Amino acid sequence: MLSFTEENYLKAIYKIYEKEKDVASTNAIAERMSTTAASVTDMMKKLAAKNLVIYEKYKGTRLSPTGHQIATTLIRKHRLWETFLVEKLDFSWEEVHIIAEQLEHIDSDKLIERLDDYLDRPKYDPHGDPIPNAEGKYTLREQIALNQLYKGDKGVLIGVKNHDDQFLSYLNDLKIGLGTKLEIIDKVMYDKSIKVKIDDQGPVLLTEKVSRNLFLKKTNQN
Amino acid sequence: MLSFTEENYLKAIYKIYEKEKDVASTNAIAERMSTTAASVTDMMKKLAAKNLVIYEKYKGTRLSPTGHQIATTLIRKHRLWETFLVEKLDFSWEEVHIIAEQLEHIDSDKLIERLDDYLDRPKYDPHGDPIPNAEGKYTLREQIALNQLYKGDKGVLIGVKNHDDQFLSYLNDLKIGLGTKLEIIDKVMYDKSIKVKIDDQGPVLLTEKVSRNLFLKKTNQN
DNA sequence: AAATGAATTTTGATTAGCCTAAAAATTCTC
DNA sequence: GAGAATTTTTAGGCTAATCAAAATTCATTT
Could you say which of B85, B102, B108 has the minimum Cβ distance to residue A99? Predict the structure, then answer.
């Protein structure tokens, strides 16, 4: 049985690996866990002794197959719970992360599978992130960030890169959510801001910082 | 913020108090928590320092108003989650306790209230136990143990005293659950066993050990 | 009121997770 | 490739929660 803390370390390593596609450095793990490098070194030794990670002094840490399995299960649980909170309990997408951080540690295989069934085996969570299946596999969709599109392009929002409270609330204010149709009216070269039409509403100006964090499925050809 | 462990201590004290209507002795708490009296003494000092319990050396421990509030909230959460697991995820009543022991520690007021709404504000959990409301109040029903009834009496099962896996599974086998109609066909004075008709099925013999643990609402007068 | 036995507390240790400060290894820079 | 800067590890210590064993207090009996 793993502790809450050990599980969180494995998840942190997984997340770093997802981005870097390389070993997770001690400092990177420390930053993600809001702790010190010294604590990370201690924990890596412990997890290595349990064969959950492959740790090489001064080189960094990778997940072992077992560690990887545990990490993807945590992601699966997290995203299923987020889906439950939004779909069934009517939470909004910026509220669910904190609660799911707790729920993901509930230990019951049967519970996860029943929850998955109850939600009709969803493939994506309320932020558009893929939900791994029981084997840890998930399917990525073809998606492109809004700032990569051109004037005249149209698309539907299928995911967000940033899961920040503030960012998501800002999108709520703009009435932008998953499934929202967006069309690029104009791009301002000077500051890379983009004027978009939102679900047939009047046009709105989005800064590059925002448009970079919106993933669309293109609905026009070219 | 309380730890998982501190919360469990408060719940243990509450449960002892529910039964004994008196102070909870150090040994009684130790037994419920499967720990030693020494550990309990340490913890009582800590909880007393936080004003969650009233602890008097060598005398025993009672809950403070704050401690009582926390304990009933835990019971509330536990019973709501059990209800969720049975009603929505189709678990059976003997499986839910272990999982709810974990879920009850999830910290989010909004989550509890949303869950309560989602379940249509149930008053009783899958074992027939009352669910405290947000203020910690609950309503007891008029109920009587099956072994207190007489030949010819009829009733509906509205609760069970024992929550043991084995006991509940045995009831499942007999097709006895909450809402099941029972009628006393005969009482054997010698061993206090009772012959009952179950929901219009053929009669079955129940030992006193079983009948003592079944709470009914009487449906005949006399 | 002393003695006995049970209940409870104190004492001294252990483990997990974390920290700071110092030392060591690695990487960068010129 | 030597020295500087950065990263990582080691060393030593702290706190929370636990335990076994010893000491204390309480309750009861004689």
Answer: B108
Asked if the model's pLDDT at residue B222 lies above 70, the reply is: no
> A144-218: which CATH topology?
SH3 type barrels. (2.30.30)
Residue B30's nearest nucleotide, by CA–C1', is C8
Looking up tokens 């509450």 gives B14
Q: Calculate the CA dihedral of residues B102, B100, A74, A33 and round it to 10 degrees.
A: -30
CA dist list (Å): A74 to A34, A49, A120, A162, B137:
19, 21, 19, 19, 36
CA distance A194 to A147: 8
Residues 32-91 of B with CB under 7 A from strand D: 34-36, 38-39, 42-43, 46, 57-58
Q: Give the containing element (helix H, strand E) for B54.
A: strand B53-56
pLDDT category at B17 given cuts 50, 70, 90 is confident
Instruction: Name the CATH architecture for the domain at B4-63.
Output: Orthogonal Bundle (1.10)
Give the span between the Cα atoms of B193 and B186, in whole angstroms.
9
* Single-letter amino acid, residue B148: Q
pLDDT tens-digit series, residues A38-83: 999 999 999 999 999 999 999 999 999 999 999 999 999 999 999 9
The C1' atom of D15 and the CA atom of B42 lie apart, in whole Å, by 14
Structure-token pair, residue A50: 């349990």
Select from A103, A116, A117 the residue whose CB has the most chain B CBs within 10 Å, as the one to mutate to test that interface: A103
ipTM of predicted assembly, 2 dp: 0.89
Instruction: Determine, for residues A106 and B110 on separate chains, whether the beta-carbon distance falls below 8 Å.
Output: no
Nucleic strand D under 7 Å from the C-beta of A5: no
Domain positions in chain A are 4-63, 144-218
Give A135→chain B minimum CA distance, Å.
Answer: 21
Which of B205, B104, B196, B207 minimizes the C-alpha distance to B162? B207
Residue range B29-33: average pLDDT? 93
Pairing of strands B60-63, B53-56: antiparallel
